[in-house]
TrEMBL record:
Name of the molecule in the record: Transcription factor
Stretch list, region Disordered: 45-71
Main location: nucleus
Biased composition annotated in UniProt, kind: Polar residues: 54-71
GO BP term, pick one: DNA-templated transcription
Cellular component aspect of the GO annotation: chromatin; nucleus
Record key words, sorted: Metal-binding, Nucleus, Repeat, Zinc, Zinc-finger
Top-rank taxon: Eukaryota
Length: 540
């Protein structure tokens, strides 16, 4: 049933997706009825649960055989089998939770299984779960190791209180007893995946509390200052595990699960500054123009009367410093450079900290999200974890979702900038314009220019990969690819980013829904092309 729900939501067929949504709710109801949401001792489980967990079937003869032999089994084996049964139930519940949370991220559906319902410990370490005998299990710690596992609620609370710890002490949190990067509290690989999904749910729930009314500047800042430290704390916990890696295949032989979590971290950072909820609802309805309208409107990022000063003076002048993750080196790949935000650079001269002409608060939020989006795309590209790589066709669906959202946010930011500077600089990405000279230097901040350069690098890398594909492909596909090269596509940087990403997503062989993502990006690219052309027709 779980596999059918996954298929329905990723096959690309709307009818199947609607049916799968109904089945997802039924699946969660079954999990609740089986009491999977909280711990049960093996002795309190029905007998058919025990035999199904041990023998894989529940025939009467097998039940009798198991009951007659269970008491004659060594205690070590009984302990192992009982532990496996409890862990199996726990992991089944978390698999359902991951699916429920994915639907929140992908389609803005209300979570079928909420964070508050789970009363379980986090999953154990993968090597302990993979133990093939009582002896191997005991050698890895057995019951002692399993009892060290942190509860889901305690782990999530630790993440969500990270902002308080950052404010109350300047010491290294690695040695804080409440910190998840502490080796004693460190979540397992599967536990990390569960927790990053729980943070996505938390962001969704926080925004739902504000439905029906506009956000104030203070509420927006409060949410971001509360959740950003939680994401950094999760990142520290992930990085504290020596077998975690961004690389595929995992260089330590630990499987791909640790790398599967990182696209979700990137998505969480992006969505902290841009609410894509209504865009996701439009995607569910296959309303591509509606998606473009919602992203361009930016309903939750607007001008506040009480934020007038903040729209004129850079936050660094008022003492409110924003922070973000330092570099990809924090995730264990130090050779990959990643861009830095203004708060990480040396302070610029006061005059250069003044917001540029016409620059809005919305554009500032978009730029911060776009930096994360660009970093995510660049990181995947350098590691070979993109759908342009033949060896990466089996990337998990969250990689496609991350590429999809990051491309939209990056394209929306550059198109928003284009609409502001078009009358003075022409079409960015088509017309030659020296951004370091007047009028460019009067319209764009240093960080704007850095992000534009990053977009150029991303498009250049994608073009090289597409050209290699042309050399290795047949004549028909080669012609199609040539027409989509970033250097050939018209309409400015925003249009180029969306068309290039659509070309990559179209190559994914495992998840048919990525074809829908590609069609959506192509439709949005046409809308951005119209906005770009309109911007240069405006007079000063």
């Amino acid at each position: 049933m779980l596999l059918n729900v996954i298929y329905g939501h990723t096959c690309g067929d709307k009818t199947s997706a609607d049916i799968a949504s109904t089945h997802c709710a039924a699946l969660v109801s079954l999990a609740r009825a089986a009491e999977l949401t909280h711990h049960l001792d093996p002795k309190n489980l029905p007998q058919d649960h025990l035999t199904a967990g041990i023998n894989g079937n529940d025939s009467p003869s097998d039940t009798e055989n198991w009951m007659s032999s269970s008491f004659s089994q060594p205690k070590e084996r009984r302990d192992w089998l009982n532990w496996k049964l409890v862990e199996e139930r726990k992991r089944t519940l978390y698999a359902i939770f991951v699916l429920s949370s994915f639907l929140v991220s992908a389609y803005n559906h209300a979570p079928a299984l909420t964070n508050s319902e789970i009363r379980l410990d986090l999953p154990c370490e993968e090597d302990l779960w993979a133990a093939e005998s009582p002896q191997a299990w005991k050698q890895m710690g057995g019951q002692t190791a399993s009892k060290k596992t942190l509860s889901f609620s305690a782990a999530l609370t630790s993440l969500l209180t990270a902002s308080q710890r950052e404010q109350s002490q300047s010491a290294n949190l690695f040695y804080n007893s409440d910190d998840l990067s502490n080796s004693e509290n460190r979540p397992s690989t599967f536990g990390c995946l569960v927790l990053i999904y729980s943070l996505h749910n938390y962001i969704w729930e926080t925004r739902q509390r504000h439905m029906g009314r506009q956000w104030t500047a203070q509420e927006t800042d409060a949410m971001q200052s509360h959740i950003e430290p939680a994401l950094r704390a999760w990142q520290a916990a992930w990085a504290s595990n020596p077998v975690h890696s961004l690389e595929r295949p995992n260089p330590f032989g630990a499987g791909p699960l640790s790398a599967d979590s990182i696209p979700l971290l990137d998505l969480a950072y992006v969505r902290l500054f841009v609410n894509l909820g209504r865009c996701k609802e439009a995607f569910w309805q296959r309303d591509w123009n509606g998606m473009a309208d919602e992203l361009a409107r930016g309903t939750d990022i607007f001008q506040h009367p009480d934020a007038a000063m903040n729209d004129v003076v850079d936050p660094s002048l008022t003492g409110h410093l924003d922070t973000r993750r330092d570099s990809i080196a924090d995730l264990g790949v130090s050779e990959l450079a990643i861009s830095r935000t203004p708060t990480q650079e040396e302070p610029m001269q006061t005059l250069s900290n003044i917001y540029k002409i016409g620059q809005s608060k919305r554009e500032k939020h978009l730029r911060k999200a776009a930096f994360y989006a660009a970093d995510s795309i660049s990181m995947s590209d350098r590691l070979g974890n993109t759908f342009a790589e033949f060896s990466s066709r089996e990337l998990p669906i969250q990689c496609a979702l991350c590429a999809f959202d990051c491309a939209q946010v990056l394209a929306e930011w550059i198109t928003t900038v284009q609409e502001r500077v078009g009358p003075y600089l022409g079409v960015l990405g088509r017309d030659d314009a020296d951004l370091t000279q007047v009028p460019g230097v009067m319209l764009l901040e240093d960080e704007d220019c850095k992000l534009v350069d990053k977009i150029k690098e991303i498009l250049g890398s994608i073009e090289m990969k597409m050209q290699r594909q042309v050399q290795n492909g047949n004549s028909m596909s080669a012609l199609s690819v040539m027409q989509r090269l970033p250097s050939v596509v018209e309409g400015g940087y925003g249009c180029k980013i969306l068309i290039a990403t659509a070309s990559l997503l179209e190559q994914a062989a495992v998840w048919p829904v990525t074809k829908l993502m590609a069609r959506s990006l192509e439709a949005q690219a046409m809308r951005m092309k119209e906005r770009t052309e309109h911007s240069v027709m405006m007079t000063t």
